[in-house]
Write a structure and sequence with these properties.
Distance between the termini: 45 Å
Number of helices: 1
CATH architecture: Distorted Sandwich
CATH class: Mainly Beta
Structural class: mainly beta
Shape: globular
Strand content: over 45%
Oligomer: single chain
Number of domains: 1
Number of strands: 22
Radius of gyration: 18 Å
CATH topology: Beta-galactosidase, Chain A, domain 5
Largest sheet: 8 strands, antiparallel
Order of helices and strands: HEEEEEEEEEEEEEEEEEEEEEE
Helix content: under 10%
């Protein structure tokens, strides 16, 4: 495996040859796919998609240049929050956002194509007794789709909350706005989860932590990069928008030098707006679809 020669993941990947192989970056083992259609990097820890760049474009996802050492969760990309989102509903001693994002995963299949391909992953060991989880990542040209499949193999109802906790790379918080969630009700974590209605496009110039009741697409308008990232989804009534703002000064893997480079727009199932019970034998497929296009006009 190759050793990292710089902090930035995108810069490190740019130094690698084309192909599909394992690399080592900041102490983490990554599956790297680098082809004429673009680049993809997935960490073995958490099956966490850390990097996606269609050919000729800037990276779509943000990843910390100073991640905490393994087995701490990696800050950036698309962490898998499962089988709960946020703090555990009954036991605060359990890890935030569940077990999936820090577990070891294996690559089960790879089906490359000239426009991208499809890759499936599963945990190396069961994360919860009687519950199964898998992930599929698919690329078709500039369209990226992530599908997280949960299955209840027990004889009892199981409660599951989850998220595809996507960190999107941006040119600056004062250069972006979000379209598609105006008029939606949201629970504001900064105001004791009180519910409000968004009356105008969402900005992220300050600390933001909101869960929206929302099923459609969100459009991340980035005037600095002159692009739009459209985020669609399936089997999710919750869209989370997060940026730590000034709180980043207390976060070693972000800091005030990196907080301006991302916004999280998360496809989620939360206790606020989703049905969390999964019946015996039932499967649930939650997905997020990410498309990049140039700004018009």
């Amino acid at each position: 495996m190759d050793q990292v020669t710089g902090n930035g993941l995108a810069e490190f990947i740019a130094q690698q040859p084309d192909g599909s192989f394992l690399i080592r970056w900041q102490g983490f083992d990554l599956w790297l796919v680098k082809q004429p259609w673009g680049e993809l990097a997935v960490a073995q820890q958490g099956a966490q998609l850390l990097h996606f760049r269609p050919a000729g474009q800037a990276p779509v996802l943000w990843c910390s240049s100073q991640p905490l050492p393994a087995p701490k969760a990696i800050r950036g990309g698309v962490p898998l929050c499962w089988p709960w989102f946020g703090d555990h509903p009954q036991d605060s001693s359990k890890p935030a956002h569940g077990y999936a994002r820090t577990a070891g995963w294996q690559l089960d299949s790879a089906e490359p194509s000239v426009e991208g391909g499809s890759w499936t992953f599963s945990p190396q060991q069961a994360l919860c007794e009687g519950l199964a989880l898998s992930l599929q990542i698919e690329v078709r040209a500039a369209l990226l789709t992530l599908r997280m499949r949960s299955e209840n193999n027990t004889r009892e109802m199981q409660e599951l909350s989850m998220a595809l906790h996507s960190y999107f790379a941006i040119s600056g918080r004062d250069q972006v706005s979000l379209d598609g969630i105006e008029g939606c009700t949201y629970a504001d974590k900064l105001r004791d989860m009180a519910h409000f209605r968004l009356e105008q496009p969402q900005s992220i110039r300050q600390r933001t932590d909101r869960v929206f009741r929302h099923q459609g697409d969100v459009h991340l308008i980035d005037r600095g990069l002159q692009r739009m990232i459209s985020i669609g989804k399936g089997n999710s009534n919750s869209t989370v928008v997060w940026n730590p703002g000034d709180l980043a000064a207390e976060m070693a893997d972000i800091g005030m030098d990196q907080v301006d480079g991302f916004v999280c727009i998360e496809t989620a199932r939360t206790a606020d707006f989703d049905q969390l019970a999964l019946a015996p034998g039932e499967q649930l497929l939650m997905e997020t679809r990410i498309a990049v296009s140039p700004l018009k006009g």
